[in-house]
Automatic annotation (TrEMBL):
The protein's name: BioF2-like acetyltransferase domain-containing protein
A Gene Ontology molecular function term of the record: aminoacyltransferase activity
Organism of this sequence: Candidatus Blackburnbacteria bacterium RIFCSPHIGHO2_12_FULL_41_13b
Keyword line: Acyltransferase, Cell shape, Cell wall biogenesis/degradation, Peptidoglycan synthesis, Transferase
A Pfam family reported for this protein in Swiss-Prot or TrEMBL: FemAB
GO terms, biological process: cell wall organization; peptidoglycan biosynthetic process; regulation of cell shape
Keyword Cell wall biogenesis/degradation: yes
Gene3D superfamilies in the cross-refs: 3.40.630.30
Record-annotated membrane-spanning stretches: none
Amino acid sequence: MTIHEVTAEEHNDYNGVVDHPVQTWEWGEFREKTGNKILRLGLYDKNKLVEGYLLTLHRLPYTNRCVAMLAKGPAPTRQMLINLRDWARQENIIFIRFEPNTSLTHKSTQHILELFKTFKMCAGRPFFNKKTPEIDLTQSEEELLKKMHPKTRYNIRLAQRHGVEVTEDNSEESFARYLDLMDETTRRQNYFAHTEHYHKLMWKTLRLAGIAHLLKAVYQRTTLASWILFVWKDKLYYPYGASNNEHRNVMAPYATMWQAIKFGKSLNLKSFDLWGSDEAKGYTRFKEGFGPKNIESLGTWDMPINNNLYYLYRLAEEIRWKFLKLKARFIPLSSFR
């Protein structure tokens, strides 16, 4: 087995071996447009590409050093970790942050955790929440409704009685409304969000590739909720959603989720990843009402290459995130435009 950079001619082969939207070729193109340096590495058995790794490289100011991030990649193996460690040593990488797309119930979980100890890896700051709710789309609509919380079923019916209509609309006008709602949602809920520029680049790149889709919930000619969904292989994802505070009594978000479920089923997808949960957040209670199964991942693990610089980076990282959380309380998304 050898590891080396994937060429542009291998675009389709690369996408064929990656299992998550943030590992796709197109996600790499999007991240490049936001200013990140990216690297696509492949694991080859002779001349056959068998695994792909999309790494984002983040250069430290005033240095020639980088940190490498590998989010939602394949389950780590000894050979993978050896190859990436050797590559990182040659490239002045301070550390590699891994967040495998692997659940704690994976058959190799214990072996992987032992590997992390062998390579002296330590817990890192997560990209994604460690737990994510996931809905089994192979069930019938009747089975899905039966598993929901009674209040959730009631709210879906209530939205239907009020005449809330949810449709897929990938037009520029619909996306512009999504941005307005995202601005409003961010200001209302006081959390740090990606910029409008980020969302525009993400949408343009992933929509063109057929990965991103936009659902809107309309009541009396007003869009009350707008969600971006990703479709990749046999799975649907809900990474971004926004709503306004008007007409809350018509339960537009419940109608949107139910239509998203039916959208996934219409494409014969097998599951619906709701993109993370946090027991302290209201959005988690909303998601839990739809009867998902909670999947817990292996979490985030750092492989230090330069130990001294790694610990300095972690200290600076903690200070930065405390500042961003404070900033988000006072500066809305619109101020980042």
